[in-house]
Amino acid sequence: QEHLVESGGGLVQPGGSLSLSCVGSRNISSASSLAWYRQAPGQQRDFVAIIDSAGLTGYAESVKGRFTIARDNAKNTMTLQMSSLKPEDTAVYYCNLLIGTRVYWGQGTQVTVSS
């Protein structure tokens, strides 16, 4: 089984930047897709960004132009670079991997955007 660990969360002021990482225990390069989701308290878990095995990316409308998803196969890592952060970006951010029909989730990392 794949084990995912997110890191990089923390407190940042509005307009600031933050970078999140997700490290897999095995080889995440074999994943059909790598994605980030986020969930605020009492809310559903929402899609944020995705990158496939060919490097093609997709983003939720709310983060387009502000967030960038990338992968580093050598480090078995994917990242989410966030800029121009807004209070509504506050949430727990989760790493998601799809390998065939199998879905894997990390435990999440908290991002808080506040003055």
Largest sheet: 7 strands, mixed
What percent of residues are in strands? over 45%
SS content category: mainly beta
| N-to-C CA distance | 40 Å
The count of DSSP E runs of length 2 or more, i.e. the number of strands, is 11
**Portion in helices:** under 10%
Q: Number of helical segments?
A: 0
Shape: globular
List keywords for this structure.
single chain, 115 residues, mainly beta, four-stranded antiparallel sheet, 11 strands, globular
Describe the structure.
- A hairpin with a 6-residue loop joins strand 4 (33-39) and strand 5 (46-52).
- The mean pLDDT is 93.
- The protein contains no helices and eleven strands.
- Strands 2, 4, 5, 6, 9, 10 and 11 form a seven-stranded mixed β-sheet that branches. It has a four-stranded antiparallel β-sheet with strand order 1-3-8-7, with no helix packed on it.
- The radius of gyration is 13 Å and the shape is globular.
- It starts with a strand and ends with a strand.
- By secondary structure, it is an all-beta fold.
